[in-house]
Amino acid sequence: MTGPALIDVEDLRIDLNLGSSRVAAVEGVSFHIDRGETFGLVGESGCGKSITALALIGLLRRPLSVGAGAIRFEGREIQNLPAVEQRTLRGNRIAMIFQEPMTALNPVSPVGRQIAEMFVLHGGKSWRDANRLAVEALASVRVPAPERRVKDYPHQLSGGMRQRVMIAIALACGPDLLIADEPTTALDVTVQAEIIELMRNLCAARGTAVLMISHDLGLVANFCRRVAVMYAGRIVEQRSSDDIFRACSHPYTQGLVDSLPRLGSRARLGRSRLREIAGVVPAITNFPSGCRFNPRCAQATEVCRTTAPETTMLGADGLVRCHHHA
After folding, report:
1. CB-based contacts of 2: which residues, under 8 Å, 6+ apart?
2. What is the pTM of this model?
3. With DSSP H G I counted as helix, E B as strand and the rest as coil, what are the percentages for the chain, rounded to 5?
4. Phi/psi of residue 316, each to 5°?
């Protein structure tokens, strides 16, 4: 990497404020994303992925708040920027695709106007020019008959079409970083593949870096160059996509890999069962002592239950937090 990363997160802590007390929902999270890079953040629901993304874009709301750490964009700390500068950064330089397009889109406004607003508010365009650009934006995400579709309301579009509208809105002003939070949720497999391929092509053509957030390790590893695995508010392993499958080191990562469906003769004959990780992610207010994965880990020993593991570097850009890592 030459020069500062596009975005650099260092020792981030996000607090859940409970009246007179605070609980760390996310703790000690560090990673960076270079220009044009695809980076994945993966883990089960409740691990802290989405609130980490909201912190990066300055959209955390009470009772959540950034308690410590730094978030730097092109080497500049963005947490303490004035509200006007943060709004300029959002949309222009950093954009986000939210989990559920039906709730993220305004149900009483045509999708074309919602795209046009980006060009007016962030690009300084007139409404006349913005409406023309909205049609072009829909065409760029392969929505058929874009001149007609700009007049449709979200409920008139399928799930895949609504997600394409969200991508068009996010990429309207040519951001340097796109945060995609579960962009294929509730879509069938064929549409998922189309959306991922669309994002891959558009972002590669524009040189846009991507932070892909998902519970689907297979999807993330296929899309991203590097992957961070998050569990109970902490990153437990970070590797290249190839190494995640070839030589993962944390038992939680191995559990995610083992839970992926396999194609083969045994699967076709119904003789292969999906493996699962026993238990559930603990609640924020009930994180266990020591390694937070220890209640679900078959390899856990006494040290795992009493002492939080330190970070061990793996090669130039990998890390793991485990007392018994492979």
Report:
1. none
2. 0.92
3. 35, 25, 40
4. -75, -35
